[in-house]
Design a protein that fits this description.
Helices cover about 25% and strands about 35% of the residues. The protein has about 170 residues and is an alpha/beta fold. The chain has 5 helices and 10 strands, in the order H-E-E-H-E-H-E-E-H-E-H-E-E-E-E. The strands form 2 sheets. An 8-stranded mixed sheet has the order 5-4-3-6-1-7-10-9, with helices on both faces. The protein is globular. It has helices spanning about 1-10, 35-45, 55-60, 90-100, 110-115, and strands at about 15-20, 25, 50-55, 70-75, 85-90, 105, 125-130, 135-140, 145-155, 160-170. The structure holds NADP nicotinamide-adenine-dinucleotide phosphate. The site of NADP nicotinamide-adenine-dinucleotide phosphate has 29 residues, from strand 1, strand 2, strand 3, helix 3 and helix 5.
Length: about 170
């Protein structure tokens, strides 16, 4: 049984999909404080066909629930919480168990869930938003523990600069 478990875990790749301002802000009043249409498309491209794990507050923030063409797992401490189209999990570990044999688990926020998943993550698909924003949801991680393997820089039509950065451990 131990060997079977080792094989299973060796294939489970955990990715944080995260958009963050330069001051660490990721959210404000239950929403994302900027509007970058291209980043929404990238989010979709990165997550479609995969399992997404999110905190209950991020689930509540979704305009369209569940996220289509993805297995949606929602982490909550509320016993008996359920929602149509979501699998409920009581912890990050429970969420990863419920991801079953998925090869790729995409952790899509928010702050509390990123913090819970950071130590387990293999990869971060980061959108750096080049500005400081007001917010009430933050995230931080030690960049020195991560190696940048890709970077692409862009600007929105109204001039907000942002970069897609892929980070792997090491
Ligand atoms: P969150 O992480 O989305 O959800 C927090 C909730 O998840 C908790 O209240 C609890 O739900 C549950 N939870 C968290 N950790 C848990 C654990 N270890 N075990 C069991 N349940 C756990 O909330 P947040 O940190 O406030 O983030 C939400 C904000 O981030 C919003 O503004 C959203 O728009 C933003 N966001 C930004 C991005 C981005 O990339 N910029 C991505 C996603 C979200 P219960 O209260 O139900 O027990």
């Amino acid at each position: 049984a131990a060997m079977v478990l080792a094989v299973k875990w060796s294939f489970l790749m955990i990715t944080l999909v995260l958009a963050m301002a330069e001051n660490g802000v990721i959210g404000r009043d239950g929403a994302i404080p900027w509007r970058i249409a291209e980043d929404m498309k990238r989010f979709k491209a990165l997550t479609v066909g995969k399992t997404v794990v999110m905190g209950r507050k991020t689930w509540d923030s979704l305009p369209r629930k569940p996220l289509p063409d993805r297995a949606n797992i929602v982490v909550t401490r509320q016993t008996g919480w359920s929602a149509a189209g979501a699998v409920t999990a009581s912890s990050l570990d429970d969420a990863l168990d419920k991801a079953g044999n998925a090869d790729d688990v995409m952790v899509i926020g928010g702050g509390e869930i990123y913090r819970a998943a950071l130590a387990r993550a293999d990869r971060i698909e980061l959108t750096e938003v080049h500005g400081a924003f007001d917010g009430d949801a933050h995230f931080a991680f030690d960049r020195a523990s991560w190696r940048e393997v890709a970077r692409e820089s862009h600007k929105t039509p109204d001039g907000l600069a942002y970069s897609y950065v892929t980070l792997v451990r090491g």
